[in-house]
């Protein structure tokens, strides 16, 4: 019995933080920023979803398989990806090798490699609970922005008969509509989407292009002032040039903002350093546990709490409501 108890304890998910840490946000006051950690958790069978480096490695492998790159170039790019810190430059060179010399959208082998890497995404969804949590928040007005090139969330939403829509920063009218909250099931891909390689931001010039439009920039920066951003699966997002240009460096008075970031606490020193660094940007860093496996359950609990707090607030705070709330959270029940 004692051994069993110890095992249970070891595998227990840490208790989720209660909504007072999040300031009891209503779903419509939240903006979810989804990073590669979400896609990696939902479809672990696709290495390209795990990180930017994994994505470039997968494209190089596809180019090798499809024989659209000389073996010498393949070896050269493999070496660069493993050694170079500036992956944007590596990506830029890789695309140029497989694309025509002109700047327009002519056929290119890079597009073929992308389709190979991201083929049949719908068949690779192994853990849909994460996507369900996000979709349930969207239903109640939470906006979603992502740095991911994949459309796993949209595929899953369509399977649930929601009118999902993928947007990128080139489609100005749609982005402005989305920023006003008019596209409930719109997902803004600030780096573009793999289905439209010309719109994907993979090199330094692409970064400059997407941050050129002052009206779009202003609309998005207003969101950073008005909404509570909740970063999920976003280990690298805050180092991202577009994200920095859109939000981190342009918006003033960030100390008055309330944004939140869920991270894994692998190392205490790193965790508390990140906490201190992020407060400068108005972002509170919160740990979901010390291993990646805790992440999906934690987000489900959090979604349940946000919804239930809305119910409590709407129906008045009574002992009965509080008991229902505590029971539902402890039982991991989602009442949507």
Automatic annotation (TrEMBL):
Keywords: Acetylation, Phosphoprotein. Belongs to the FAM118 family. This is Family with sequence similarity 118 member A. The lineage of its organism: Eukaryota, Metazoa, Chordata, Craniata, Vertebrata.
